[in-house]
């Protein structure tokens, strides 16, 4: 209370001399305001730390220990590197890593190209752009599990509509979710349907903010539309596209809902992502040590990706820091 | 300048309108399939009929009566609303402090929050599960509200901080001169100015909680505490997946979030674009 009343007294005193430029606040006042600031942020920071930082540290500890499951829980039986050793030598982890990376690369590229096309079209749309935005947001806001069920139904071998279409086009009747490659493609299509609109919105917002005079200059110089796109629009969009890519890549490393519901990681382990592998190890096989190692290594990969991309962000973050 | 003037029928049939139509169909066709299937009687579900032979509400009543979709809906609503309220209150306080008060280490805190906000949930799954089991919180609302709050707070703090920074200092000083307490200043002067930020943070938090699956699946497995995503994922029976019921439940689950996103679309777009990362 004292901090606050003295703070208001300070401002009131400053108000009496209006001509004097704002004096730097006395140190003691700053200290009080800072204390108040930490007081205000403490509840939020404590909750975040309790649910993220503490468990992550614990995950690392678990992954570096021999974990034995006992009747009432589990116990940590001394330091070991064997959990990570297991990862490096297990084809399961390598396959999951490969699938996650492969899936991420393909979906992100397709979503980016399609999303940019949609954004370029919508930018030229004169009427109804607001409604189009709302429509684009619908897949984004949908529960991923619903998306998964819907596409699983479409791909269903006996009564799915994809089966009818493929049969009608003369592709026969592949068991889509029961064969590795079609299952992976099927997952990707479901992902592309849900996430392309999200990418389109980000790119569209970037497009709208591009300076108009550059285009006028290009038009005066007689640049073709195609040339303008490659030499002006795309380079100017690079920060926006980088943002969308980073968002998507980090998100894709947590890939879980879609394959868990649609394929359960199968057939075999062909659609087993890192997150599904960790989940199965932890909660199906109760292998807490290796499971924690998978989880920790995934987090580490994400962290490395984040630090690498921080180079891109730093300029923008730094501008705000005061 | 880049919109050429079009005359005659070119005004309506041109590259832009055709591509827009393709986009609309790309989004709507799967959604149509979802809605149409939810109204189909059982026989129609076993073949790829384009239109239901007759409209049936049977799937909808089955979702609520035959399955416990009502319970899942209530659970999702409780968890989502409680989390959103908590995130907005805690996020406003922290966003205000980190945006406007002279704290040392502010910048570091914001960067740490940024890193935390991209952490995969699976990294904290096991320790969190063990912790919740230790304190007896498995299968409870707080088992989800606590982690959801923590995972949605970083983004909310970033968004709200950005709005707080933009508020002129004079407005705040006016409150101080009038002798208002710090909390009162935040409530009646800062908050109204940061309203767009609250909408953005709120709709993102709501959507994230409404759609979250991994935590809900792991922490609340008992039927009475399942949320919609887990409920829908576990509708599958032993012999056949009851797609009609699943899609009826899906439509009911999608309508509220769809309406919210439609109303707040401006704020969603601003959150997606100037979001946590751009700062």
What features would you describe in this structure?
The complex is a heterodimer of chains A (322) and B (279). By secondary structure, chain A is mainly alpha-helical. Chain A has a single domain, classed as MetI-like (MetI-like fold). Chain A contains 13 helices and 2 strands. Chain A has helices at residues 2-16, 27-63, 82-89, 91-124, 129-141, 144-155, 161-168, 180-208, 212-220, 225-252, 257-262, 274-284, 288-320, and strands at 65-69, 74-79. Chain A has a two-stranded antiparallel sheet with strand order 1-2. Chain A is globular and about 75 Å long. The model of chain A is unreliable at 1-17 and 317-322 (pLDDT under 50). Chain B has 279 residues and is an all-alpha fold. Chain B is globular. Chain B folds into 2 domains: 8-59, no CATH class; 61-273, Orthogonal Bundle (MetI-like fold). The longest helix of chain B is centred in the N-terminal third of the chain and has 32 residues, at 69-100. In chain B, helix 5 packs across helix 7 and helix 10 (195-211) crosses helix 14 (265-273). Chain B has helices at 15-38, 42-45, 58-65, 69-100, 106-116, 122-134, 142-165, 169-177, 182-193, 195-211, 214-219, 228-233, 243-263, 265-273. Chain B has 14 helices and no strands. The chains are: A mainly alpha (322), B mainly alpha (279). Chains A and B meet through helix 1, helix 2, helix 4, helix 5 and helix 6 of A and helix 1, helix 4, helix 5, helix 6 and helix 7 of B.
